[in-house]
Design brief:
This protein is mainly alpha-helical and about 140 residues long. The chain is about 35% helix and about 10% strand. The chain has a three-stranded parallel β-sheet with strand order 1-2-3. The longest helix has 12 residues. The chain is globular, with a radius of gyration of 16 Å. About 15% of the residues have low confidence.
Length: about 140
């Protein structure tokens, strides 16, 4: 699987995994928490033309991030200042947009700092796989209400 291969990489600390196209937010969240891999990002969203908002779902994921069960929370495709603000308040610390210049203006006005790449990845492959990670009990750990 993708996580098996990523776990054996020398660059595991920089490889993040997410899933797309789940029927329910809780189903996606449970799957991500059960995933035996340390760098999991919960992402949620639809195309920019969708009237659906996922602020509550984003908050649930952010609570689970705070519990150490997820690495980060990302919202997409977020194309308005109102939505950037709401998703940020809900806990998303990553956002995908079609209007990057407008978002950069919003980031500057908020005084936020954008992440910067820390390392240019090479093409090396680790020949030393990591040991298997233990099984988690997501249903006992996950906050879903």
């Amino acid at each position: 699987t993708v996580t098996d291969r990523a776990s054996r990489s020398a660059w595991t600390h920089q490889i993040y995994i997410t899933y797309d196209m789940f029927d329910t937010t809780l189903g996606a969240l449970r799957t991500m928490i059960d995933l035996q891999y340390p760098n999991k990002i919960f992402s949620i969203g639809l195309s920019a033309c969708s009237p659906t908002q996922y602020y509550w779902d984003t908050t649930l994921a952010a609570v689970n991030k705070a519990k150490g069960l997820l690495a980060d929370v990302v919202a997409w495709t977020v194309d308005s200042e109102t939505s950037w603000e709401e998703y940020y308040i809900a806990g998303a610390r990553g956002m995908i947009t079609n209007f990057i210049h407008n978002m950069l203006d919003w980031v500057a006005r908020k005084g936020l700092t954008l992440a910067r790449p820390m390392l240019q990845l090479g093409t090396e492959v680790s020949l030393n796989p990591l040991p298997k990670i233990g099984v988690s009990a997501a249903d006992d750990e996950m906050v879903n209400e």
